[in-house]
Design goal:
By secondary structure, the protein is α/β, with parallel strands linked by helices. It has a single domain, classed as Uracil-DNA glycosylase-like domain (Uracil-DNA Glycosylase, subunit E, 3-Layer(aba) Sandwich), CATH 3.40.470.10. 50% of the residues lie in helices and 9% in strands. It contains twelve helices and six strands. A hairpin with a 2-residue loop joins β5 and β6. The protein is globular and about 50 Å long. The termini are far apart. 28% of the residues are buried.
């Protein structure tokens, strides 16, 4: 197996940057690896060293991988434009401030799906930024990840309309979710996550079409969904209103399941969260 010299690595890197420039990139953001990513990278490098296969070996199609990832980003951008121009639900269009497409890593292995944007999300154009979103961020951090490493979206891309003068948020109807579902399914197809966490019964209903299912009936279980593992759990807003250790532990057990499915390391401290 031919070793790749420093000069050849530089040439490969130059070609990759040329490809990225062709795709329209003008700058690159390289976040610091989390301890999980660092261990994963070290494990990969160790495996490559043992097998003799290297990331930049002649047998590797890394340039094709770069092109494929660039295509995903481009397709997601085009899909976002379609969502922004959507007028399928006139009553939602007239009520919304803006659509809320999704946020995070477009190549994430873990995706969180909620039901619909709330007031804060509608104003900022980003999912889960209100109180429930702040709790979700803490949950993701407890897993050893960040919002930038996962992908977060909703079944509905518009905030459900409410009567003038009323506050709060309305649960989206089955018809509204079925109308908007193709956008989410397109996101899932492009991102191709290994694990999908459905936040709440409405998100589970929107994804599966199963009406009238209580989240307590399906949480704690795993389902196959379009090639991914679907894990239903309570919505963060449920924990805000029912903040008992028992409820927090149930949600955490679902997240531990997700971590296990992804092959993430789980510390003893993480295993014991919310047990006392």
């Amino acid at each position: 197996m031919e070793e790749i010299s420093h000069g050849k690595r530089t040439l490969f890197l130059y070609k990759y940057l040329e490809i990225l420039r062709f795709l329209g990139y003008s700058s690159l953001f390289l976040p610091r690896l989390s301890s999980f990513d660092a261990r994963k990278q070290a494990s990969l490098e160790n495996k490559e060293a043992k097998t003799g296969k290297h990331f930049l070996s002649k047998e590797d199609n890394s340039s094709q991988l770069v092109l494929a990832k660039g295509k995903v980003t481009k397709e997601l951008s085009l899909l976002k434009e379609k969502v922004e121009a959507c007028r399928n639900c006139p009553h939602l269009v007239s009520f919304r401030t803006q659509t809320v497409f999704g946020t995070g890593n477009p190549y994430a292995e873990l995706m969180f799906v909620g039901e619909a944007p709330g007031a804060e999300e509608d104003l900022q154009g980003e999912p889960f930024v209100g109180p429930a979103g702040q709790l979700l961020t803490k949950m993701i951090r407890a897993m050893g990840l960040s919002r930038e490493q996962v992908y977060i979206a909703n079944v509905l891309k518009c905030r459900p309309d409410i009567p003038k003068g009323q506050k709060g948020n309305r649960k989206p109807t089955t018809e509204e979710m079925s109308t908007c579902l193709p956008y989410l399914l397109s996101q899932l197809k492009l991102i191709n996550p290994k694990v999908i966490v459905a936040l709440g019964a409405t998100a589970y209903e929107g994804l599966t079409g199963k009406v009238g299912i209580k989240i307590s009936e399906v949480r704690g279980r795993c389902f196959s969904f379009n090639g991914a593992t679907l894990i239903p759990t309570y919505h963060p807003s449920f924990l805000l209103h029912n903040p008992s250790l028992t409820n927090k532990r149930k949600v955490w057990e679902d997240l531990l399941t997700a971590m296990g499915k992804l092959g993430m390391p789980i510390s003893e401290k993480q295993r014991n969260y919310f047990l006392s």
